[in-house]
Amino acid sequence: MIAGSSSSVAAPFVDIDIREKRYGERAVLGNLRLSLAPGEIVALLGASGCGKSTLLRIVAGLDRDYTGSVAFNGEVQHGPSPLAGVVFQEPRLLPWLRVDENVCFPERARGEALVRARSLLDEVGLRAEDGARWPKHLSGGMAQRVAIARGLFTQPQLLLLDEPFSAVDAMTRMRLQDLLLTIVQAHGMGALVVTHDIDEALHLADRIVLLETAGGSRSRPASRIFEVDTARPRRREDTPGSAWRRVLLDTLEASAR
Ligand SMILES: Nc1ncnc2c1ncn2[C@@H]1O[C@H](COP(=O)(O)OP(=O)(O)OP(=O)(O)O)[C@@H](O)[C@H]1O
Ligand SMILES: [Mg+2]
């Protein structure tokens, strides 16, 4: 069942309250309130250019030019925090560093840091010897696993992922989606995932935030939050129900008009 909602069941540890984000004359985000509880996955859907990456950058502390606040455990953030790990669409590995050095970066890959990097590589399904490889020798799926390990390195409570699986083939994508579900459960962390894929959102998310494109006749940006109240793990053959997809597609289409 999918329902319009903005509430969260467990005690939230991430509170996002964006009153307004502008680029010059144009308001991109506005009146967006979202809380995440540990273990909760929220998907961000919306047409290209509606502000999904902008929202993620704000939550990551990479953009402070907005009105509102982002708080972790009740503490308002003023910049990047180790409590938030970020995974981008492309792995963005540094080519002059080996895999385990990339996971630790900017820390040096030695001692405890190296032990943690190796354990994370194992967790994302890579072998210990992969740590010594160069990024250019990895497949796209492997590189994205390294990027996920890097996102987990600071032991964040929140993982922010911007279209993390859009550059890999369909099988790899499903495996990485399941890896994300395993990691979120194992670490009891929250995840905010940007995706263009309704099926992906319905497979992964407890809630789906649909951002509507601002501008044109609509000067105020808007968002709708849908609660997907089917327990995880979800069988791919069962989800999504066609009614869910219809609602999301209709809303996406209407917002893109
Ligand atoms: N640094 C910037 N300066 C001015 N405008 C910007 C800047 N960054 C983004 N924008 C604009 O803000 C809007 C939102 O951009 P954003 O990258 O957040 O969209 P998005 O939803 O992530 O899109 P996509 O799905 O294509 O990745 C777009 O219209 C974009 O052109
Ligand atoms: Mg984007």
Automatic annotation (TrEMBL):
Q: Which residues form the ABC transporter domain?
A: 13-238
Q: Which UniProt keywords apply?
A: ATP-binding, Cell inner membrane, Cell membrane, Membrane, Nucleotide-binding, Transport
Q: Which Gene3D superfamilies match?
A: P-loop containing nucleotide triphosphate hydrolases
Q: Name one GO molecular function term.
A: ATP hydrolysis activity
Protein name per Swiss-Prot or TrEMBL: Sulfonate transport system ATP-binding protein
PROSITE patterns, per the entry? ABC_TRANSPORTER_1, ABC_TRANSPORTER_2
Keyword Cytoplasm attached:
no
Highest taxon of the lineage: Bacteria
State the family named in the UniProt similarity comment for this chain.
Belongs to the ABC transporter superfamily.
